[in-house]
Amino acid sequence: MKACLAEIDVVVLAGGLGTRLAGVLDGTPKVLAPIDGRPFLSLLLSWLQGFGARRVIFGLGHLAGAVETYIREHAPKDVECISVVEPEPLGTAGAITHLASHIQNFPVMVLNGDTFVDADLCAFLDNHARSGAPGSVLCTRVSDAGRYGSIDIDGHGHIVGFFEKNAAGGVGGIINAGVYLFERELLNIVASADGPSLETNVFQKLTPGTLAAYAGEFPFLDIGTPDDLARASGILAPYFGTS
């Protein structure tokens, strides 16, 4: 087991409504979606533990009570888990700002609670430290970048463009994998965002080259749709033995 996350805080954003999965999950929060009977959050925490995570801050909203109960009853005993419930849907930027007072160490790692990417988080941290950037984005190459929106990276490993989602399918590219590293400077910028979205209201308004990228061809999963949730077991099995 690695230990690179032992001295930093990890933020998991898990307050979304999960609208696209409402008919499938039937009142279960998206972050607790069952993968062969095991909640997705359990897999996520196991993954973070593998890199030594000891302090995790959860940004919760919709169905927060169920997530808090799960954390209280099932979270690893050697991981300090802090739940911060937003009073209303705040979006990704708003959720980070709402829980910012609980962040004790920088850089802070922030990740979406409905994605998994098989990347070395220690290498991500090292790349961020070398870059000197106020923030870094973990990126991966996928065969259908239009579904997610793609990222343009220059020859020095800095992000110089974000491109919106589009309907053109089957076009490969590099995407934001939903894992970030923020220095305090970037957290302050997030707090002054003029809208709720981290990607649209913060990242896309930064001067090109502000953010560093750590990119590769990493296995990636987004459980945001019924089809993706159905595929999750097969994708995650090599890592967690889910099938």
Strand order of the largest sheet: 5-4-1-6-11-8-12
**In CATH, what is the class?**
Alpha Beta
Low-confidence stretches: none
SSE string: EHEEHEHEHEEHEEEEHHEEH
Distance between the termini: 23 Å
Strand percentage: 25-35%
Give the rounded overall mean pLDDT: 92
Number of helices: 8
DSSP E strands, number? 13
The main β sheet shows up as: 7 strands, mixed
At the fourth level of CATH, the homologous superfamily is Spore Coat Polysaccharide Biosynthesis Protein SpsA, Chain A
Integer count of domains: 1
State the CATH topology.
Spore Coat Polysaccharide Biosynthesis Protein SpsA, Chain A
Strand-pairing-aware structural class: alpha/beta
Approximate shape: globular
CATH arch. level architecture = Alpha-Beta Complex
What is the helix fraction of residues, given as a range?
A: 25-40%
Taking Cα atoms only, what radius of gyration do you get, to the nearest Å? Answer: 17 Å
Describe this structure in words.
The protein is globular and about 45 Å long. The two termini are 23 Å apart. The longest helix has 15 residues, at 226-240. The protein has helices at residues 22-25, 40-49, 64-74, 91-99, 121-131, 184-191, 198-201, 226-240, and strands at 10-14, 34-35, 38-39, 55-60, 80-85, 108-112, 115-117, 135-142, 151-153, 159-162, 173-182, 212-216, 220-222. The chain has one domain (10-240): Spore Coat Polysaccharide Biosynthesis Protein SpsA, Chain A. It contains 8 helices and 13 strands. The strands form 4 sheets. A 7-stranded mixed β-sheet has the order 5-4-1-6-11-8-12, sandwiched between helices. The chain has a two-stranded antiparallel sheet with strand order 2-3. Strands 7-13 form a two-stranded antiparallel sheet. The model has no long low-confidence stretch (mean pLDDT 92). By secondary structure, it is of the alpha/beta class.
